[in-house]
């Protein structure tokens, strides 16, 4: 049995990780004209974080997969 209780997806994101997600979120909200205080922005943020946790760390790839151009 493994000594790890949690998978790497359960580990907290570091400050640098959150910075990447924030930049992508801001860029997409701006580009897609999404109000950053609305529910759509919340869903987009959750999607970006989930993609990041799944291993997508490149900002361009995150924008593309989360709905950017």
Provide structural commentary.
This protein is an all-alpha fold and 69 residues long. It has a domain at 22-66. The protein is 59% helix and 0% strand. Helix 2 (39-53) packs across helix 3 (59-66). The N and C termini lie far apart (44 Å).
What is Rg?
13 Å
Largest sheet: none
Shape: globular
SSE class: mainly alpha
- Proportion in β-strands: under 5%
Averaging pLDDT over every residue, what do you get? 88
* Terminal CA distance: 44 Å
What is the number of strand segments?
A: 0
Helix proportion of residues, in percent? 55-70%
Total DSSP helices = 3
List the secondary-structure elements in sequence, H or E. Answer: HHH
Low-pLDDT parts are: none
Please state the oligomeric state of the protein chains shown: single chain
Structural topology:
Elements: H1 15-32, H2 39-53, H3 59-66
Helix pairs in contact: 1-2, 1-3, 2-3
């Amino acid at each position: 049995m493994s000594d790890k209780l949690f998978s790497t997806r359960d580990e907290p994101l570091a400050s640098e990780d959150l910075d990447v997600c924030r930049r992508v979120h801001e860029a997409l909200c701006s580009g897609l004209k999404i109000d950053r205080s609305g529910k759509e922005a919340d869903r987009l943020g959750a999607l970006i974080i989930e993609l990041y946790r799944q291993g997508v760390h490149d900002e361009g790839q995150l924008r593309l997969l989360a709905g950017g151009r």
